[in-house]
Amino acid sequence: MDVLVPWPDLDRTHGAWPEGVRVHVWDGTKDEGEPSKDVLDRVGLWAMPYAAPDAVRLLPELPALRAVQSLSAGVEKLEARLPSGVALHNGRGLHDASTAELALGLILAAQREIPHWAEEQRAGNWDPHFTRSLAGSRVAVIGYGSIGSALEARLLACEAEVVRVARRARPEEDVHAVSELTGLLHGIDIAVLVLPENEGTVGMFDAEHLAALPDDALVVNVGRGRTLDTTALLAEVKAGRLRAALDVTDPEPLPADHPLRTAPGVLITPHVAGGSATFRPRAERLIVEQVRRWAAGQELLNPFPGP
User: Fold this and answer.
1) Are residues 228 and 100 in the same domain?
2) 182 with 245, same domain?
3) What percent of the chain has pLDDT over 90?
4) Whether pTM exceeds 0.85
5) Could you tell me if 91 and 72 are in contact, meaning their C-beta atoms sit under 8 angstroms apart?
6) What is the tally of structural domains in the chain?
7) I need a labelling partner for 269 at 20 to 30 A (CA). Which of 14, 39, 87, 185 fits?
8) How many CB atoms lie within 10 A of CB 32?
9) pLDDT band, very low/low/confident/very high, at 31 (cuts 50, 70, 90)
């Protein structure tokens, strides 16, 4: 029983591999060298390297492959590349804390004008003034799932009010349907997008939704760049009516001369929400547990699509 994992020595930190399991390592880079054809012919479970998009080239070379464990939460593009009969499992839960932290950081930076104060520091100025606040704000979390839930906990600790929005309404959890979104936005101070990219979400947060937000509202995107209409957003921020804090953009990477980079009231980070020190230990634990389940003939965690 052969499995392919992205990091060596997982057994040293997480205990011995199950009996009968042969573990091979490939980190997804050309420098490391791909596994031999003999190994590829036998691999049944592949825990794919993180942030290594070229690794998918191996998929046609894995005739015995039965399951793929991605370390990303959004796997729609990967799903389209999988051979028939191969089960897909995503990294649900791995990025919750990291993404929620960055979303909160972007919100606080925008509300409390941290970029402005950093510029003032470098300029040698000392000219304090009052700023906006997160406390007392109404925040819509659009795409409310595990990441949204983690963000909500942090927002509540900052005395914000949270409005939950998901694809379908869940009245028992006080979650609104996305079909209600336009009406909800009229009373929202901060709209946070935590949406995956699929046919139903590309361009979903469009000019109509942006127009529904009150003046001076903040738009935050830590989901996928293409879920937000960049042209419509640019029009709003250039007019000074809305502000934005974006970890993901469309296009991505964002060209050096893209007008979003210099638009007023816009803060951008280069898709780093999931990239913190919390990721690796959580990813390792998930991989080890999936290998254990695979060897025992048990159902794997995080099937995609979910039940």
Assistant:
1) yes
2) yes
3) 92
4) yes
5) yes
6) 2
7) 185
8) 12
9) low
Q: For position 37, which CATH number holds?
A: 3.40.50.720
Catalytic positions are 224, 252, 271
Beta strands in the chain (DSSP E): 2-5, 22-25, 43-47, 67-69, 87-89, 138-142, 161-166, 175-177, 190-193, 218-221, 243-246, 266-268, 303-304
Nearest to 73 by CA among 294, 282, 291: 282
Pairing label, strands 243-246, 218-221: parallel
| pLDDT surpassing 90 at residue 152 | yes
- 125 and 153 in a common domain: yes
Do 90 and 102 lie in a common domain? no
For residue range 281-290, what is the model confidence (pLDDT) as tens digits?
999 999 999 9
Which tokens go with 240?
Answer: 């000074």
On whether both 189 and 252 belong to a single domain, the answer is: yes
46-62 tens-digit pLDDT: 999 998 888 999 999 99
Q: How far is residue 4's CA from residue 297's CA, in Å, rounded to a whole number? A: 17
Q: Is the domain of 109 the same as that of 238?
A: yes
CA–CA separation, 7 vs 168, rounded Å? 38
Strand partners, 221: 193, 246
Cβ proximity of 21 and 298 under 8 Å = no
Contacts of 19 (CB under 8 A, 6+ apart): 295
pLDDT per residue over 239-266, tens digit each? 999 999 999 999 999 999 999 999 999 9
Amino acid (1-letter code) at residue 78? L
User: Is there a single domain that holds both residue 226 and residue 261?
Assistant: yes
Pairing of strands 190-193, 161-166: unpaired
The range of the structural domain enclosing residue 71 comes to: 2-94+277-304
Q: Beta-carbon neighbour count of residue 194 at 10 Å?
A: 28
